[in-house]
Amino acid sequence: MDTYYKPEHLAKFPQIGEGSPKLAQKFFDYYAEVFKEGALSAREKSLIALAVAHSVQCPYCIDAYSQESLKQGSDVEQMTEAVHVAAAIRGGATLVHGVQMLEHVHQKVMK
Amino acid sequence: MTPPNETEDSPRATNSLASRGAEIADAAEQLAVLARLDLAKAPRGGVFAANVGKPLRPARLDIFQINVGKLCNMTCRHCHVDAGPDRVRENMDLETIDACLRALDATEAEAVDVTGGAPELNPNFRYLVDECVKRGKRVMDRCNLTVLLLRRNADMPRWFAERGVEVVASLPHHRRLNTDAQRGSGTFEKSIEALRRLNAAGYGRADPRRRLTLVANPVGAYLAGGQAGLEKEWKAELQKNHGVAFDRLIALNNMPISRFLDWLVSTGNLQGYMELLTNAFNPATVDGLMCRNTLSVGWDGRLYDCDFNQMLDLECRPPDGRRPHVRDFDPAVWAQRTIVTARHCFGCTAGAGSSCGGALA
Fold first, then answer.
1. Inside any domain, residue A42
2. What is the pTM of this model?
3. CATH superfamily of B4-349
């Protein structure tokens, strides 16, 4: 069965440069700079990337940053907590919109 | 050789391949498993020599590494030696240790790297260390930490301190979960206690004569992370959570041999791990490879280019065509050899590289 997502596409990511080598180069240079050890450690950046990967539901990123998080010294307890942070923010983002719903209801419904 | 009552409460993650009678316990079978893999899509077909692109020649001999045997109080899941409490036969005797010392005197090596198994369990260990210290050599003890808690070794941290022995201690992670997964339940707690005893003896306090080095390695099929970043974090976490200190951290990749190879095969990770290693080949690691500046002596006195080749029975190939033994060691002949390599060598050249001394690039 064919699928929209193909694991081999991750390794082919650099091919995105075909239509615009200049923009691809700028993006990949920027990307490499972002993940360097800085005020945040490479391990902390990997965990943020792992959480964001789950939030944007990117299977390529989940594979890549599961591996990178392990490599940078995180264990499954720390990685799971990172994913829960993503889940909490995603869930919270949904729920906090409920206040908008409530205002609408309070405006439109007889008390 | 070791009274069972002394080591029976040591952590055990698995059994040795030898005790299981596993086919993959055989070095030739391990080499065959690696050679059979289809790595056609890997750079230069996954052929190590083609990636290096030149014959791998020795540099100056700096490190005289002695593997005193396969006996260990632990049985870690990834052990490249297939060491364990059952390996009572393969241990260096006094005659071979004396032959090592004579060979050492014929070299300009500045350091002696004593490894195993748990080298401290060899009855000739203290004699060997004392003789090397007497000769003015820097001595490194590759220590599993838990062995220091055995009653007979209670004095060892102080004994090491008095002799300026560098303790190079295995600790795969600064948290319990992965440490115990790799090395057996209870390892983490015992390791922390051993580190406390080393700290009390003056180790981990930036004293160059009492250097405490931790060796971290991945607990699974991925590469070692950036050494400097890991060291910074480990120092902070171990100090904060356990009040223990160390001097430096080295990060090693796991070699796809012995029990780690068996784990890779049994979990379906071998192909992916070898692709990871071969794709991460880094030419900048080649000049610093330990096989270039190290002589590796096996428990029976046989000579190898490194401890990994030793476990694969890949002996040194000096140009005189003789099967090399430490009692016949000739540095001039040794210097003319070409280093023996095979696919497992990609473990040392992947990413930032990996050697007994840590990252290379």
1. yes
2. 0.89
3. Aldolase class I (3.20.20.70)
ipTM score: 0.70
Contacts of B177 in chain A (CB under 8 A): 75-77
Answer whether A8 touches B (CB < 8 Å): no
Minimal C-alpha gap between A111 and chain B (Å):
56
Check residue B313 and give left, alpha or beta (phi > 0: left; psi -120 to 50: alpha).
left
Residue A89 in any domain: the answer is yes
Q: Is A10 on the interface with B (CB under 8 A)?
A: no
CA-CA distance, B41 to B24, in Å (whole number)?
A: 26
pLDDT digits (tens, 9 = 90+) for B76-135: 999 999 999 999 999 999 999 999 999 999 999 999 999 999 999 999 999 999 999 999
Using only C-alpha atoms, what is the Rg of chain B?
A: 19
**Do the chains contact at A75 and B228, CB–CB below 8 Å?**
no
For residue A108, the tally of other CB atoms under 10 A from its CB is 7
What range defines the domain where residue A44 resides? Answer: 21-108
What digits encode the pLDDT tens for the residues B129-169? 999 999 999 999 999 999 999 999 999 999 999 999 999 99
